């Protein structure tokens, strides 16, 4: 490969790595610093700066390489910042082959730490998404000064890198502005709501069951956010009733007469999910014998509920992001752009912040869906709701099966003492199971499966006492899951290593990143953290 092709290939690879970095973290300053470090290895630069115009209209250094941000902000690069100001004003790149020849740097020896026979070139390009620049990317690189040097390729490369940076910054600023506006609206509505009703009044949401303080606060949030068209992210463990809350938001919104369309993102492959959401044209693929509308079309002027949003692939995340940003899409196999007017409600039981940090979930998509989060508490944190829910499920069973069963006080107390890792869904299954097997008209405490060692979720938790603390229950749950992963012989995977050795090996292989080690071991990051504490493994900082 000749030098030109090799340079072009390296440039494309570097730009690709830059784009990945810009989508890898929610911390803009950290991300831009990593971009500069990558540029440092590609361009052999001595220093690098990224400066952006702040709220007051003044350009501020947000990332630096070759020195600390503190040193940069204390004035060590003030002469170079003068050049950056010229770039910002003109919107055009500036190249200076030798900074020592630049009049603006006269008498600033503190900035120049190069050797006598070295020449330091300055290259700066504007950061912009429109005609007006709002930042500057600049580098300093050392060269020997021999012969004529053409910096055009460097300028082109930095201009492309600045364009990627510009779009990333612009997106974060737009989302931050939207979020700030929505939070102001939320606080205004909350203030109005607090003045008239601190928590949701009893019966305000007849479709939902719960009288605990935790759930009344959730009900109040539902009533508060339902009035707007804000995107909502429901967060909580599996089985806590996120779909029911999504339906309640829709039922109490101005769109209540429109459709409520739900999609379980985890239940479909990427190809099927694309067709399901966007629809397809006749002949788009094998089996597409007729035109089919997607869920975005079907939910027009209504609400679209995307459950398990954290499970979609990275490739599909990009397609979904475009729809959320532009509110338009094309059917699979089609070229006609369709508009959509839907209110989006998403739900997940994943730690999306951790997924973004690990690179499994796009940061820009995270910002788009995490506008107003609603946290749904697990059942163990609202035990006062267990009797209400149990009676509700039993009433439903009685109506469907023409029976007149009732729960004794003893049975209700026994249910309240249970851990229910499967949350409301597990409680519903438990009630239906015991109601089906009960012959009389009264369900007693002894009739419950947990009192007969027949609890189907016993593999997920240990019941050392009828009433145990939350901490004990969580420890027991982690013990069971970890023991299930290690096997009966105490060996992780099949390589014959004891659990502690295998754990340390996985941590060392992944640079002591728990999320990566968890993927190798087939565990969750929380389980790896528990195992580290259990085996007293000291975490190394790299």
Question: Which regions have little confidence, pLDDT < 50, spanning 5+ residues?
Answer: 106-110, 196-203, 463-477, 486-496
Strand content: 5-15%
Strand tally is 16
| C-alpha geometry | elongated
Q: Strand order, biggest sheet?
A: 2-1-5-4-3
- Overall SS class: alpha/beta
Quick one: biggest sheet?
5 strands, antiparallel
What is the H level of CATH, i.e. the homologous superfamily of the largest domain? P-loop containing nucleotide triphosphate hydrolases
The first-level CATH class name of the largest domain = Alpha Beta
Structure annotation, total helices: 19
Q: Write down the CATH topology of the largest domain.
A: Rossmann fold
Give the gist of this structure.
By secondary structure, this protein is an alpha/beta fold. It folds into 4 domains: 3-173, GAF domain (Beta-Lactamase); 197-374, P-loop containing nucleotide triphosphate hydrolases (Rossmann fold, 3-Layer(aba) Sandwich), CATH 3.40.50; 380-460, Helicase, Ruva Protein, domain 3, CATH 1.10.8; 470-534, Arc Repressor Mutant, subunit A.
What does this structure look like?
Helix 5 crosses helix 6 and helix 17 (499-509) crosses helix 18. Residues 106-110, 196-203, 463-477 and 486-496 have low confidence and may be disordered. The chain has helices spanning 3-22, 28-43, 69-76, 78-90, 152-196, 213-226, 242-251, 270-278, 295-298, 314-326, 352-357, 363-369, 385-401, 409-417, 423-437, 470-486, 499-509, 514-521, 525-534; strands at 45-53, 59-65, 94-96, 119-127, 135-143, 232-235, 260-264, 279-280, 292-293, 302-307, 328-330, 337-339, 342-348, 372-375, 406-407, 442-443. The protein is an alpha/beta fold. The protein folds into 4 domains: 3-173, GAF domain (Beta-Lactamase, 2-Layer Sandwich), CATH 3.30.450; 197-374, 3-Layer(aba) Sandwich (Rossmann fold); 380-460, Orthogonal Bundle (Helicase, Ruva Protein, domain 3); 470-534, Arc Repressor Mutant, subunit A, CATH 1.10.10. It is 46% helix and 14% strand.
């Amino acid at each position: 490969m000749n030098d030109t092709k090799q340079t072009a290939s390296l440039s494309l690879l570097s730009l690709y790595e830059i784009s990945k970095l810009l989508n890898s973290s929610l911390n803009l300053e950290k991300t831009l610093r990593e971009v500069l470090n990558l540029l440092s290895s590609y361009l052999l630069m001595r220093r690098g700066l990224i400066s952006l115009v702040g709220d007051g209209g003044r350009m501020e250094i947000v990332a630096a390489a070759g020195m600390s941000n503190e040193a940069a902000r204390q004035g060590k690069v003030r002469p170079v910042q003068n050049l950056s100001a010229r770039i910002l004003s003109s919107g055009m790149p500036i190249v200076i082959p030798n900074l020592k020849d630049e009049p603006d740097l006269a008498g600033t020896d503190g900035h120049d730490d190069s050797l006598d026979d070295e020449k330091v070139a300055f290259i700066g390009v504007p950061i912009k998404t429109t005609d007006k620049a709002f930042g500057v990317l600049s580098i300093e690189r050392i060269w020997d000064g021999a012969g004529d040097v053409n910096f055009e390729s460097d300028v082109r490369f930095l201009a492309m890198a600045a364009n990627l940076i510009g779009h990333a910054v612009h997106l974060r600023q737009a989302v931050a502005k939207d979020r700030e506006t929505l939070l102001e609206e939320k606080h205004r509505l909350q203030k109005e709501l607090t003045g008239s009703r601190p928590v949701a009044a009893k019966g305000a949401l007849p479709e939902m069951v719960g009288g605990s303080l935790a759930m009344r606060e959730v009900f109040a949030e539902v009533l508060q956010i339902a009035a707007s068209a804000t995107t909502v992210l429901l967060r909580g463990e599996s089985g806590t009733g996120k779909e029911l809350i999504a339906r309640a938001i829709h039922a109490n919104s101005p769109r209540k007469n429109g459709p409520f369309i739900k999609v379980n993102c985890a239940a479909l492959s990427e190809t099927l999910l694309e067709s399901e959401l966007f629809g397809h044209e006749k002949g788009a693929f094998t089996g597409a014998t007729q035109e089919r509308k997607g869920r975005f079309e079907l939910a027009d002027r209504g609400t679209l509920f995307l459950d398990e949003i954290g499970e979609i692939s990275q490739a599909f995340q990009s397609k979904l992001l475009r729809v959320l940003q532009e509110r338009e899409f094309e059917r699979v196999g089609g070229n006609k752009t369709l508009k959509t007017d839907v209110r989006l409600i998403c739900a997940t039981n994943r730690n999306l912040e951790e997924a973004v940090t690990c690179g499994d979930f796009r940061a820009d998509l995270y910002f788009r869906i995490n506008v107003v989060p609603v946290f749904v508490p697990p059942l163990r944190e609202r035990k006062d709701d267990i009797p209400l829910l149990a009676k509700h499920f039993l009433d439903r069973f009685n109506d469907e099966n023409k029976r007149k069963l009732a729960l004794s006080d003893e049975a209700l107390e026994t249910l309240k003492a249970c851990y229910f890792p499967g949350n409301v869904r597990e409680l519903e299954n438990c009630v239906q199971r015991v109601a089906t097997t009960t012959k009389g008209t009264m369900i007693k405490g002894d009739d419950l499966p947990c009192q007969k060692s027949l609890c189907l979720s016993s593999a997920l938790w240990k019941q050392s006492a009828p009433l145990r603390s939350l901490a004990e229950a969580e420890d027991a749950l982690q013990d069971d899951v970890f023991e299930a992963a290690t096997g009966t012989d105490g060996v992780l995977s099949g390589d014959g290593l004891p659990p502690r050795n295998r754990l340390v090996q996985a941590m060392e292989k992944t640079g002591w990143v728990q999320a990566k080690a968890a993927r190798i071991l087939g565990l969750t990051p929380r389980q790896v953290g528990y195992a580290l504490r259990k085996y007293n493994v000291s975490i190394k900082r790299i």
